[in-house]
Amino acid sequence: MAKHNNHAPLRPPSEQSKDRAAKRLSADSNGLSEGGAGARTPVEVTALEEAFRRFAIHGDTRATGKDMHGKNWSKLCKDCNVIDGKNITLTDVDIVFSKVKKKSSRTITFNEFKEALTELSRKRFKDKTSEEAAEEVFKLIEGKSPIIAGVTRAVASPTVSRLTDTTKFTGSHKERFDETGRGKGKAGRVDVLDTSGYVSGYKHAGSYEKKVGPRGKPE
């Protein structure tokens, strides 16, 4: 009886090489590498995605940067000049936000964010095609960060004001400042020898010289 051969016929080496190459390409496309199973190639973050993340986490320490709420969406449109006050207003921005977000959600994802910008770009750049308008709006945002408005001012404390009011100083502390409240420097801290011949504190010091002149003769 003839024996059945269960082994598949050998294939030419050239076809075997092609099969190995095809499998390796398929593994690479799925994020696998020969260095380790399951390893994924890093995804490059675009300038638009980075701007989205910066605005998404602005003012919220619990934000992950993966989605953005309406307040920060409006701020992004203001800070990046998407709102021009003519073609695009704050009302337009709010309407588009409500349009692209899911009904049950209060935030938008990055893909919904791009959809909203594309929607606004048609009104912002009416003289351009849809693709060109979207690119122009993206350029306004790419690489940008939230603008921090205002500077924190120190609140004047009544206690501090009282302690720094030179008009209420007495004794030796008062002598360290002139009538305008400006410090006298060393003269206010160290006793300076007075050789004028007048008693210390005499208000009319120097008046005699003005009357009789420097040589003792009346002027």
Automatic annotation (TrEMBL):
Q: Where in the cell is it found?
A: Cytoplasm
**Alphabetically ordered keywords of this record:** Cytoplasm
Q: What is its main location?
A: cytoplasm
GO CC, alphabetical:
cytoplasm
Q: Name one Pfam family in it.
A: p25-alpha
The lineage's top-level taxon is: Eukaryota
Q: Which InterPro entries match?
A: EF-hand-dom_pair, EF_hand_dom, TPP/p25
Q: Biased composition, Basic and acidic residues: where in the chain? A: 16-26
Q: Where is this region: Disordered?
A: 1-40
Residues annotated as domain EF-hand? 88-123
Q: What PROSITE patterns does the record point to?
A: EF_HAND_2
Tell whether Cell membrane is among the UniProt keywords.
Answer: no
- Family (UniProt): Belongs to the TPPP family.
Name it.
Answer: EF-hand domain-containing protein
